[in-house]
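Chapter summary example.
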Amino acid sequence: MQMKINFKYKSKTTSDLWFESGYFPRKETLIHVDDLIKTGRVMDLEIMDEMGNSWTRKEFIKLNQELEKEPENIVVFFDGGYDKESSFAGAGSVIYYDKGGESFRIRKNDLLEGIEDNNEAEYAALHITLRLLEEIGVKNVPCTIHGDSQVVMKQLGGEWPCYEEGLSRWLDRIEALIHKLGLKPNLVVLNRKDNKEADKLANQALQGTKVHSNKRLE
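The structure predicted for these 218 residues follows.
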């Protein structure tokens, strides 16, 4: 989670000046706040996160202790593949996140039945990825979502209309889940070559290789 500071600075004139910092990592917050307070010229100060929430210094200290127990800095990759001959689909999900001062990576794939084409496979892969976020307790945070499906990313971002009934149902499910988790999604469209990790997982699922791991990163 990134934070920023808004504060009122007492100048040498009669004017009170308001300043706003840029965003910085949550762990640096109290260092910056206390440095400002030491100047003796800060009359009012609030700490804000990327979701628009704000706290006093005292409130943030309590919040900070709770945030250490929850996943943050969420970055996900998803990919779906469809095999016309077998009518099976493969879904690949990769999730990077921080928790308790450590970094983790989840890798998971799924073999899916009842999928009609590659676009539906991509939607299903994103839905599975978001369900994984729910399982690890992600809530009320920004989340960067990477995918190479123009259809899914553009329709989810509202740039393209979704006319197909089947895809529309997936889109509704995904939007409902994003709302339930309180995510603020940042959608990043990738070239296929830049989505190799999730693509490999989806292909492994189609080949019968099951993967599901949650690894602490060094």
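To summarize the output: Residues 2-67 form one domain.
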